[in-house]
Amino acid sequence: MxxxxxxxxxxxxxxxxxxxxxSVPLYLTSSYKFDDxxxxxxxxxxxxxxxxxxRYANPNTDELINKMAVLEGAEAGWATASGxxxxxxxxxxxxxxxDHVLSSRSVFGSTxxxxxxxxxKWGVSYTYADLDKLDQWENGIKPNTKMIFVETxxxxxxxxxxxxxLAQLAKKNGIMLVVDNCFATPYLQxxxxxxxxxxxxxxxxxxxxxxxxxGGIILGSAKLIKEIEGFARHxxxxxxxxxxxxxxxSLETLAVRMDRHCESALKVAQFLEGNAVxxxxxxxxxxxxxxxDIAKKQMRQGGGIVTFVIDGxxxxxGKFMDGLKMFSISxxxxxxxxxxxxxxxxxxxxxxxxxxxQVGIEQGTIRLSIGLEHIDDILADIKQALA
Length: 387
What we know:
With 387 residues, the protein is an alpha/beta fold. It has helices at residues 5-11, 37-44, 59-72, 83-94, 109-118, 134-140, 163-172, 185-188, 222-235, 241-251, 254-273, 292-298, 313-323, 353-358, 375-386, and strands spanning 76-80, 100-104, 125-129, 145-151, 176-180, 198-202, 216-220, 278-282, 305-310, 328-329, 339-341, 365-369. The strands form 2 sheets. A 7-stranded mixed β-sheet has the order 1-7-6-5-4-2-3, sandwiched between helices. The chain has a 5-stranded mixed β-sheet with strand order 8-9-12-11-10. Helix 4 (83-94) crosses helix 9. The longest helix is centred in the last third of the chain and has 20 residues, at 254-273. The chain is globular.
């Protein structure tokens, strides 16, 4: 088989059944039949490979995991019910009381809640570092630091860190590096190849790409994923076979969709940068982005998310969003349909104002997820809403 991303995403499939189907069928079963008592014993004793229960494995989830692992250059993976389930499962699999996490300050609101409110109850501490201040990463490592966690590009500030540099820092100190690769997808960025130990995706976003379903993916070495499996099999954050089937089919169009998302997003970012009422525009492939050179080095394209700050604070942001006619007002992203989000009152509303400002979320900050509509219609809607 060819090794081009697009071909692999389409042609990697589960083994065909005796019916010789061209498209992989749905395996809507919770359990599996054993040939005899000895086979049942051997499977449960891990002496033989095979399906036991769909909370553990299913042909549809297996296909999705195998495909994602190949596309990102990982040895193995695990599928979960949502992106946050993937993050929680990763944290819970490797962290124990007394451990410390060094995390990027700009993380998704629910990840912030895990670090601030949930894991401290179990004796896990954390320190935040800014993605653009490398000295904070070097100085933030403690003797009990077990994990470095980053989003790059970050949500919604579109901050970026040099993953090769961070991987070297992590390895030098014997620390696991975990990367939330949701915004970039395996098509635009491959953290495992850049030195990360674990790459996590909210498959709900661009991997599905159509706002239909939830899912999370954890990718890494076979050894690390075995530890994930030990926790996930018994805690139960399992992806459903139907969602896995949908997401695997979605991967077949990921490359062509991301090409269109990125092409249109860059044009939107360029337009916004020239508008008098816009204070700041953040997009990785704009030369004005502070980490533009890093983005060009480690990303294929700039992604489908554009974040900007409108002059006039929350009132101006609300006026702009209410003035949109085609864009959807939603907390989701990565859809075929263009979406506008006001992070301060939605995805990051649980942060204090001080915490939001520390990660660049002002009251006038708006996150745009650029869809697959015609670029002329996307720009026309933004122009009239800004008028």
